Amino acid sequence: MLRSIVKGFLNSGRSVSRTAANYSDTVASGSVVEQSDVDEPVELKSNPYDKPARKCLLCRTGIDLDYKNARLLQQFVSNFSGRVYDQHVTGLCDMQQKKLLQTISTSRKAGYMPILVKDPKYLKDPKLFDPLKPLRPHSFA
Amino acid sequence: MPFYELTLITRSLSKADLVKALVRAGNTLLNQGAVIEKVESLGHRDLAYRRIAKQTNEKVYTSNMFLFWTHMSREMRESVDSILRQDLDTVHVGIVTNEEKEPIECNLEELLKPPAERQAVKELREKQKMGHFTRQIVFKRTEKEWRSIPKSYPIAPPRY
Ligand SMILES: [Zn+2]
């Protein structure tokens, strides 16, 4: 009985190795997931119809935040309270939002940007985002 | 020696006095051993917020701003800062390093996913990763809810 089982196992192993060898002869492509049988439907690793990933405003345009460019920094500041908007309103990615906060603090310390208010000169600057329509309901920060 | 950008705001001065003040600032930098790469005038502009000149106590709303590109050591930076701050003609001194730029990977797509599909939330669920204070808040809330359950009835329940 044991022998028969062992024989069966060996046979099955041989058959598997054969099919694998056949497969490697017929198909060789990076984007296709390896199949055990040639006649199985082809599976691709990535969806070719996937949309390209969306990027935030600063990443998309490639604008670098500078502490001397107080006008750009103040576009992320509220007209009413003079505070920096949260990430769910500004629509920036994690790293850009962190960088924005750092740059604004250095800009304020270096004397380029008012601390408590937004400069009234820049109140009519174009709006980059609508605070009443945030990306996410709340930042939960 | 690391690179620093030094922003100098003077009080409102006549042209001759302004030249003197600038030369004095430059000389203090050089005497401390700093290297000046470039001096830029940012012009006579409205200041971000009101400043008060020393000694005269006049309020400064608009004045000249200058930018020095300098290389100096970290110890020099502090001495230069304290000397320039004590100068009667300067209203503000800001010394800023340029940080090393990290490559920025945009994870906006990840942020726009619903919370159930977000990797951060998944990790939070699986590993129960929680900060100290969050854990304390959760503990307090559960404790409060537990406390709010009455231990005994104010009126005894009817016996049948
Ligand atoms: Zn981004």
Automatic annotation (TrEMBL), chain A:
GO cellular component: mitochondrial small ribosomal subunit
Keyword list, A-Z: Ribonucleoprotein, Ribosomal protein
Biological process according to GO: mitochondrial translation
A GO term, aspect molecular function: structural constituent of ribosome
InterPro entries given in the database record: Ribosomal_bS18, Ribosomal_bS18_sf
Keyword Ribosomal protein: yes
Keyword Ribosomal protein: yes
Residue stretches spanning the membrane: none
Pfam families linked to this entry: Ribosomal_S18
Family membership noted in the UniProt record: Belongs to the bacterial ribosomal protein bS18 family.
Protein name as catalogued: Mitochondrial ribosomal protein S18C
Lineage of the organism: Eukaryota, Metazoa, Ecdysozoa, Nematoda, Chromadorea
From TrEMBL, chain B:
Protein name according to UniProt: Small ribosomal subunit protein bS6m
UniProt GO MF annotations: rRNA binding; structural constituent of ribosome
Pfam families, per database record: Ribosomal_S6 (PF01250)
Family to which the UniProt record says this protein belongs: Belongs to the bacterial ribosomal protein bS6 family.
GO biological process terms on file: translation
GO cellular component terms, A-Z: ribosome
CDD domains: bS6_mito (cd15465)
Domain of life: Eukaryota
Coiled coil: none
